[in-house]
Amino acid sequence: MAETPKEVLTRWFVSLWRNREPIVIERTRTAGSTSRGLAASPIVGVNAFQAFYDRMSALITETDVRFDWMVEEGETVAAHVTLTGKVRGQPIEVVAAVFGRIVDGRLLESRNLVDVAGFVRQMGHGVPRDLTEALALVEADAQARARA
Fold it and tell me: Mean pLDDT, to the nearest integer, of 72-82?
């Protein structure tokens, strides 16, 4: 019996982040598989995703993954995922909403909404805590430019 999209996405994350088995990239992606939201431009194919994974897994060690919720409809699966680990010995948590399209056990497309600001904040860099704080910074910048 074929895996459901939920099972494929679970296997994908558990293999990559809990078990650190990157062979799942070759087994689950295709040459045309596209991931959006992880880099400035889409990550397309096996090799490009492998390069992304190598960079991220070198930075974040002792990783694990938790599925806060997951919903499946047809070939589409949506999940709220929390990745935990360490960066230079400091515990971190990366939260994301992931939307995947899975056909015949292959992850053909994913859209990833990652809490990048939360990740950067955990590394000690100043970023807005939420959208209202970000808006206040943009408004202050606009006012300063208008006065200049």
Answer: 98
Number of helices (H), then strands (E), belonging to the chain: the values are: 5, 6
18 in any annotated domain? yes
Tens digit of pLDDT for each residue in 133-145? 877 878 888 888 8
As a whole number of angstroms, the distance between CA 6 and CA 42 comes to: 23
**Residue numbers of the domain that contains 45:** 5-114
The answer to the question of residue 126 being in a domain is no
Q: What is the C-alpha to C-alpha distance for residues 83 and 3, in angstroms, rounded to an integer? A: 23
Rounded to whole angstroms, how far apart are CA atoms 146 and 148?
6
pLDDT in tens, 42-65: 999 999 999 999 999 999 999 999
Q: Which CATH number characterizes residue 21's domain?
A: 3.10.450.50
pTM, two decimal places? 0.85
- Spatial CB neighbours of 8, under 8 Å, sequence gap ≥ 6: 28, 77, 100, 102, 105, 106, 107
Matching residue, tokens 């070939």: 75
